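Dear H.,

Thanks for agreeing to be a second pair of eyes. The structure we're designing against is below in token form, covering all 366 positions.
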């Protein structure tokens, strides 16, 4: 293997090409989903690193729930081993995982229809990492642009073996359950490409003509460019600019009161020249379904105060049912843990069956 058939997404041009191909393919898949969702098993997941916020909600969670509700078989991964790719400590992981479960169920992920499970609870998933590592080269791993970006953002921390190889682990996440559909943002496309390459090479090298793994496809999530309350950075815990699902209405009002606007009292929707104001208008628009220009016209000369009041109302109204459900769930951690244990058990069954197939293909049955 010389790695020449592997993912080459290291130039901006190659990324652009793969992005437009993925978008075209995603559009086709959406059409198939609308008519016959039964051909798909989808896998999605998050690193449990903190509370989910409005950016997650509008950017991925709403879409995930939509797909689940279309009737796709749905696997939701709590990617706990991925937490230690770019940090030295897991933090209070058990608490964070419970919060994540609370957020998941509150937004409408339904344990009756979706299997929610954690990496660390599924040994056979993790064992797939071994044969999979034999199928990729050092050079392929080193040119993964998402790994490079995470490495650069990790503040001088040396590249760990796990950071370098986690896209292979992510292939195991996807292939252990033979998911064929993975809703992702564009930063995850290199990982999807790696999973496809691994599936293909496994079949060629160890499958003896057998199609043990199919090639999973990316479903690009609708792009939602929501900035945080600072009006500069993407909404993110590390920037302290989030509106969390777990906030109360008062906390939301306070966070938005601190939001950045500008000194022009006349509110207009102008993403180019007034990004902070435009972002707040977008936030309200995304929450209420209104057009941001109409909202701007409605506020007129009301200034930043009126803008923030309008945004607060739109956000709180949108999140009210989620938060009510969240409060009920948070009061019953026993139930939440039960959901996770049941999901783990189901994932283990699936993973054991796949690992058996893999061992058979590799003549490792003794
Ligand atoms: N890497 C993803 C993220 O940071 C999380 C993740 C882990 C994932 N395993 C996955 C996403 C498998 C899709 C499929 O958000």
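And this is the sequence the design step returned. I haven't edited it by hand at all.
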């Amino acid at each position: 293997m010389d790695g020449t058939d592997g993912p080459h997404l290291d130039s901006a041009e190659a990324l652009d090409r793969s992005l437009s191909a993925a978008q075209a393919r995603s559009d086709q898949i959406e059409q198939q989903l609308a008519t016959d969702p039964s051909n798909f098993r989808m896998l999605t997941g998050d690193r449990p690193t903190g509370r989910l916020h409005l950016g997650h909600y509008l950017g991925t969670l709403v879409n995930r729930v939509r797909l689940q509700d279309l009737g796709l078989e749905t696997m939701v991964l709590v990617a706990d081993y991925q937490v230690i790719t770019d940090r030295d400590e897991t933090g209070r992981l058990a608490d964070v995982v419970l919060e994540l479960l609370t957020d998941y169920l509150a937004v409408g992920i339904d344990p009756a229809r979706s299997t929610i499970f954690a990496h660390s609870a599924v040994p056979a998933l993790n064992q797939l990492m071994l044969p999979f590592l034999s199928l990729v080269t050092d050079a392929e791993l080193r040119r993964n642009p998402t790994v490079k970006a995470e490495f650069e953002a990790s503040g001088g921390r040396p590249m760990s073996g796990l950071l370098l190889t986690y896209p292979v682990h992510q292939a195991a996440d996807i292939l252990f359950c033979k998911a064929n559909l993975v809703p992702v943002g564009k930063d995850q496309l290199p990982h999807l490409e790696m999973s496809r390459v691994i599936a293909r090479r496994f079949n060629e090298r160890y499958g003896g003509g057998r199609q043990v793994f199919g090639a999973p496809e990316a479903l690009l999530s609708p792009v939602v460019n929501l900035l945080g309350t600072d009006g500069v950075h993407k909404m993110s815990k590390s920037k302290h600019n989030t509106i969390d699902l777990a906030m109360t209405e008062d906390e939301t009002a306070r966070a938005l009161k601190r939001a950045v606007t500008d000194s022009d009292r006349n509110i207009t929707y102008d993403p180019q020249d007034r990004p902070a104001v435009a972002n707040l208008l977008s936030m309200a628009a995304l929450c209420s379904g209104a057009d941001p220009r109409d909202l701007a016209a409605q506020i007129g000369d009301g200034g930043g105060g009126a803008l923030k009041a309008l945004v607060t109302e739109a956000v709180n109204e949108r999140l009210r049912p989620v938060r009510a459900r969240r409060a009920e769930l948070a009061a019953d951690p026993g139930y939440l843990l039960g959901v996770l244990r049941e999901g783990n058990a189901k994932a283990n069954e699936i993973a054991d069956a796949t690992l058996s197939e893999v061992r058979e293909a590799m003549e490792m049955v003794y």
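Two observations from my side: The CA atoms of residues 207 and 360 lie 9 Å apart. The longest strand covers residues 41-46.

Warmly,
E.
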